[in-house]
Design a protein that fits this description.
By secondary structure, this protein is α+β, with helices and mostly antiparallel strands. It contains five helices and 13 strands. The strands form two sheets. Strands 3, 4, 5, 6, 7, 8, 9, 10, 11, 12 and 13 form an eleven-stranded mixed beta sheet that branches. The longest helix has 13 residues. The radius of gyration is 23 Å and the shape is elongated.
């Protein structure tokens, strides 16, 4: 069966954030005689009935032609609607996005710590995608992969939507060499280099991922780069080479070795929620991306300009 084409959004982005798109679902019980009936049932619990009615009054729900939708219009299954959410004020992450490389197909962004990759939850405008779209005047920019909010470093963004699948496939098929650096405790009793393989699972709504028995679905090579020379027990700089990309994989594997990353609020102990302390970022950096460009066939190598405070890589 041929899928119907999704119409282009009739609303422009707002601060680099796309409007919300929804399609009116089937209503076999006839519970929603009007468009308002459905939207109240769908959103009243999150924002309240007065807020939904206020959005109708202000003409903020629009159809595929950009026409404001009236609350009393009959409910039509399959109809497309768009609107912008009211985002709560967000504190600006006080670091700038670096651009390591840019052409008409891709942008290699150098994401700072504390900046989420994509709009989600309480982080909407203060995200890499939203800020980069606005700052680079590239409204169609999309990520080919993601980094955790607390991790800094390289993210591949695709300029033209029709090419996104080609670059996403590189990550799906493990054709990208990713190299991270981390600062963590030094323990001479931990034999390095080593390769950690385990099964990692993360439950929805749980902050941390965990290792469980079963067939491994994650693999990371851990190498020691340097350590504090004046003490047997101190901090060290590590090179981390993940083969897979499970949620929090490197943090989980380092913690399993007894080497939790410095200033990690989740591993080994989940700390109480607190405002971000920009002076104490998680010591994890996506430092290198290497891949063969699926469009040009060119071998690509990119390095982050960010540096982690800690033992010198040359010590």
């Amino acid at each position: 069966m041929r899928r119907k084409r999704i119409p282009a959004a009739p609303l422009p982005q707002r601060n680099g954030v796309d409007p919300v798109r929804l399609r009116l679902p089937a209503d076999p019980a006839g519970a929603w005689p009007t468009v308002r009936d459905h939207l109240v049932a769908r959103f009243a619990g999150a924002v309240g009935v007065p807020e939904v009615d206020g959005m109708f009054r202000d003409g903020r729900f629009v159809d595929a032609d950009g026409r404001s939708v009236a609350p009393g219009e009959p409910y039509t299954v399959g109809r497309w609607l768009w609107f912008h959410r009211d985002a709560a004020p967000e504190e600006r992450v006080p670091f700038e996005i670096g651009v390591v490389y840019r052409d008409d197909r891709i942008v290699i962004a150098d994401k700072p710590h504390f900046l989420a990759t994509t709009p989600r939850g309480s982080h909407v405008t203060e995200t890499l995608v939203a800020r980069a779209r606005h700052e680079l005047d590239l409204p169609a920019l999309q990520p080919a992969h993601r980094l955790d909010r607390l991790t800094a470093g390289l993210v591949l963004l695709v300029v033209r939507p029709e090419l996104r699948g080609a670059y996403q496939t590189l990550f799906r098929d493990r054709l990208v060499r990713k190299e991270y650096e981390a600062i963590a405790p030094y323990d001479p009793a931990v034999p390095l280099p080593t390769t950690v393989r385990s099964r990692i699972e993360k439950e929805r709504g749980v902050l941390t991922a965990r290792e469980v028995p079963g067939e491994p679905n994650s693999e990371s090579r851990i190498e020691l780069l340097s350590h504090d020379a004046d003490a047997d027990a101190g901090h060290a700089r590590y090179r981390l080479l993940p083969t897979t990309g499970r949620t929090h994989q490197l943090r989980v594997h380092m913690n399993a070795l007894g080497l939790p990353l410095l200033d990690d609020p989740l591993y080994p102990t989940v700390l109480p929620p607190a405002p971000d302390d920009y002076s104490r970022p998680l010591r994890l950096l996506a430092r290198v991306l290497e891949f063969r460009d699926p469009v040009t066939g060119e071998q690509r190598h990119f390095e982050s300009a960010w540096r982690l405070a800690g033992p010198s890589a040359d010590s």
